Amino acid sequence: MINAEMLKGCIERSNKSIVEVADAIEIDRATFYRKLSRKDSSFTVEQAKRISDLLHLDATEFEAIFLA
Fold this sequence. Notes:
The protein is mainly alpha-helical and 68 residues long. Helices cover 66% and strands 0% of the residues. It has helices spanning 4-13, 18-24, 29-37, 45-55, 59-66. α2 (18-24) crosses α3 (29-37). It is globular, with a radius of gyration of 10 Å. 15% of the residues are buried.
């Protein structure tokens, strides 16, 4: 399960859009939006790593978002 609100905040702080992030990790935009809106959603390890790299997340943020 992901911390979608924290992830959305990190996306906003990075001055990127949700669409840009979805495109960068090569998943369908609708799928990305669904993952952010459903409480039981998660990302693959590879997707989480790519998001982390794109948004320059530190270890604490990564853990709080993807390993909560």
